[in-house]
Amino acid sequence: MFQTLKNAWKIPELKSKLLFTLFVIVLYRVGANIPMPWVNPEVLEQQFNMNGGNAFTWLNLLSGGALSRGTLFALSVSPYITASIVVQLLTIAFKTLADWQKDGERGRKKLSNLTRGITVGLALVTSIGYAMFLNTYGMLSYTTKDGFSFWLQMITLVACFCAGASLIMWLAERINEYGIGNGISVILFANIIARLPAMIGSLYSRCFTARWTVFAKVENWQYAQHSIGIALALLFVAVLLFFTILVIWFSNSERRIPVQYAKRVVGRKMYGGQSSNLPLKLDMTGVMPIIFSSSIVSILPTIAGFFPNSGFGKFVNNYLGMNSFPYLAIYLILVVAFAYFYVTISFNPVEVANNLQGNGGAIPGIRPGRPTIEYIKKILNRITLLGALFLCVLSGVPMIVNAIWYAIDGVGLADLAFSGSSLLIVVGVALETYRQLEAQMTLRNYKGFLD
């Protein structure tokens, strides 16, 4: 990978694209640290630390900590990601949008404009909710009961948050046009990397400052606590390396279905007769099932966070909170369900089988038509199950560790609970960007018939 980056740096065009991408990331990080008027970041961050485990924890991770500080880019890429998912679902429900998707560049522009409009609408609604949340819980350094001043304050905050989300969308599209990699993915990558030092520092300190009330009566406990802290830190590093290698291997793995093309005579030439394969990636869904599941399973804890002293709030925190095992069981079930759902809407075996038949291809031993469709569906169900189990292990193990830590120490590790999905995003974006670099380098080094 480093050799590829070194070689890409020597190509002027790729060098300019890399520099442009880095420039946009720097601009984004600057915007993510621009404070908003009236917002008290200390009180806001304290509130986030006290109410970890709800949807705000996940959104704060995706924003690189900007949400917990109430900065200009507090909403981050969440409105754009949600809008993209909505448009993808609408292309299945409405034939017009499906036709746009197949209409080439013109259709993609129409879908892009629709995505932008939905993004602005979602950003506006989210900005209003976030501004009201800040005002209701006393996170604004200046509050007034005067009607004109109050509405001026709210309108200013909503306009700034909405403008920040729109600017992020514009920056992501500029990366798509002039940079390297997918713009939203690159910004997500930068956000998670920006949160990494804080996550490591928090985890490291907790290893050495945990109360461990179960072992508090042990003689010379201070020395034992230091030794346990070192052992836990080394164990976390080893587990992180193991899961990183596992994610890389699984992301590059695929099930290849052999395809044989029939020979065709066109004029005096014979075409076809070649053997190929139909690659199906084991991780076809990526991080989408985790995003769906995290959003849905965090709804009740998020609502309960607004009513912490009520019976409903206490019940949810005790039995359906992030540190409870029922929460984990529901989350893992939703991951498997959404893995199958996302594959269903993103991969059409009927269309693939028809394309094979139209091009004179067939799977050896399988008749064209309905048998081919059923065979592809059977293979697809198997690899989807493997992918779903992989996502369950990757995202479930940190959550189990968080729940056990909470049971022993009395305080959970909210950042650790989402480390599996963060690792999947970081590794996936790095591999995708690496493949794009290699593809563009191959394109520029390709020798034609005139060379």
Helix content: over 70%
Average residue-wise pLDDT:
80
CATH class division of the largest domain: Mainly Alpha
Structural class comes to mainly alpha
Q: Count of helical segments?
A: 19
- Largest sheet: spatial strand order: 4-1-5
What oligomeric state best describes the polypeptide chains here? single chain
Q: Which fold name fills CATH's third level, the topology of the largest domain?
A: Preprotein translocase SecY subunit
- Which residue ranges are poorly predicted, with pLDDT under 50 across at least 5 consecutive positions? 447-451
Distance linking N and C termini: 28 Å
CATH architecture of the largest domain: Orthogonal Bundle
Extended strand count: 5
> How big a fraction of the residues is strand?
5-15%
| Overall shape | globular
Count of folded domains? 2
Written description of the protein model:
With 451 residues, this protein is mainly alpha-helical. The protein has two domains: 1-209 and 429-441, Preprotein translocase SecY subunit, CATH 1.10.3370; 253-410, SecY subunit domain (Preprotein translocase SecY subunit), CATH 1.10.3370. 73% of the residues lie in helices and 5% in strands. The protein has 19 helices and five strands. It has helices spanning 2-9, 12-31, 41-50, 55-62, 66-69, 78-93, 95-101, 104-136, 147-178, 183-209, 221-252, 288-297, 299-306, 311-319, 325-346, 349-358, 370-409, 414-417, 419-445; strands at residues 254-261, 264-266, 269-271, 275-281, 361-362. The strands form two sheets. Strands 4-1-5 form a three-stranded antiparallel beta sheet. A two-stranded antiparallel sheet has the order 2-3. α6 (78-93) crosses α8, α8 (104-136) runs antiparallel to α9 and α16 (349-358) runs antiparallel to α17. The longest helix is centred in the last third of the chain and has 40 residues, at 370-409. The protein starts with a helix and ends in a 6-residue tail after the last helix. The model is unreliable at 447-451 (pLDDT under 50).
